[in-house]
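Hi P.,

Sorry for the delay on this. The queue was packed all week, but I finally got your sequence through. Input first:
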Amino acid sequence: MNGLLIFKMELFKFFKDKNFLLAAGILSILNIIATLSVIYDLEHAAAMHDMRGMLTFLFLMLLLTNSIFVFIYPFHLIGMDYKNKVMAIMVASGVNRKKLFFSKIGAVVLFMLILMLVLSFIPFLLHLFDLSQQGELHDFTERFILKMTYDYSSSGLAFFCWMMVYINIIIIIALSCILTQGRNLSVLIFIGLYTLNCTVIFILSNIPLVADFSSTGLLIFQLLVAIILTGIFGYIGLKTLERQNL
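Then the structure:
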């Protein structure tokens, strides 16, 4: 089985995970309701004065719930084959462990990006619609285009840095799940490894400060550090999976 087929198999498996997809659907609906509530609150500030504190609290709790869900879900996606006792069967049937590792990582990253898009897409459209109703959409679009035009290189680098940081997190989650074979202990292992990851980044971040890097140079340096750390954690995860007794 080649890597593309394994990748498709992983995605198919994720999209059949009904319980978590149901939770994502409920969160998406709650996000829409929260967005409509905030828009209504802003448009009827005086009438909603008494309810503003409660709405703010509910909105913050929903934001926290979204963050926890997006954080926990990759642990479930990566560890589900261990928990369902499928990993050993897949390897025994001839699935290459290296291809499985990279296909699973790619599938998780793509699936989580789709999930975050689903959670935020309609609220974002509602926000744009509200801006258009208030006659502010044109100004918002102009500011966005100007920002992307004049700071294109920095914006592009910032996006790649963000993507690399997210892939770095997914790789560390994968390593944690592999080391614990999908057990709940993987969350604690992740916290330890990610703390180490952040400590190394913090120490290395002194180099651009001492060398007086430009903002673009700083972004490039951060991107390189993220790539190197991701490669190290990914290599450890891959070698652990290849030698693991399933």
